[in-house]
């Protein structure tokens, strides 16, 4: 269906390989459609016991959605009203929902960079088996480009232990394999050098059923459980849970300033890179998402993303961080003190009547 998604069935495992390495496997609309089509076909194919998704590149599993495309079509269309953008987010979020509720084991080899949309195609439901390596670098950095943590972030970030989801979303910080395991964003660790051996074993061993495939992978990875090392989040959990439980972004920032240690200073610096408005929008998003189903979260996010492209923050953020790379976004408002409640709640106004929402069938 697309040269950037390779699909094959080996030994009753449907294998999807993301193959857009020059763009760090940034998801295009064609890639979203190809992944969706194969997953739907394999879901109903009794000869396929499980699905495995991986990258052809050592650098990245998937660095997110194609934000250069977002910038191009968002600027070309009046008031962000691009049909291509509309289709992309509707179909990407529907794919996130499909993966979350997939009825077969969904095995993700998260080698290299895993960000944004890459998280959306890995944070599946109860049958997820996410494998990280020493090269894994995971993040939800959307606030740094004037966006919010979408692709179901309202749901999976609020189900993380303690306040780790708030920290990840508001800081946009990158975490390691050990941190991903601590945060329940991954399940097992395997040294990258052993990935070819794992794939060879999966291709040769005749699995009795889906559970046999999962057990085989877990047993293969078990001797390496300590090889992930020690991450920083375990040591910082008490501070994260205490500081990020605050009701407002301003209170979180104030607490970080008072804390005064290296971790707090790094977190504060990371938050200062984000859009003040979208930091506040993100906190409200997570507050609401904590009490919603995944489908409700995705419908909320679909409304939110339409509002984002009707305004300037995301296009300005992409310009500054990715297109011109001056790293000097002109945020509006420029400071947290100038963000008011009306600015935040505007992002949660329904765009469509419920019966016309593009994700109403979820």
UniProtKB/TrEMBL annotation:
One of its GO terms (molecular function) is 3-hydroxyisobutyryl-CoA hydrolase activity. Coiled coil: none annotated. Keywords: Hydrolase. Signal peptide: none annotated. InterPro entries: ClpP/crotonase-like_dom_sf (IPR029045), ECH_dom (IPR045004), HIBYL-CoA-H (IPR032259). It comes from the Bacteria. Residues 13-348 form the Enoyl-CoA hydratase/isomerase domain. The keyword DNA-binding does not apply. The keyword Transmembrane does not apply. GO terms for biological process: L-valine catabolic process. This is Enoyl-CoA hydratase/isomerase family protein.
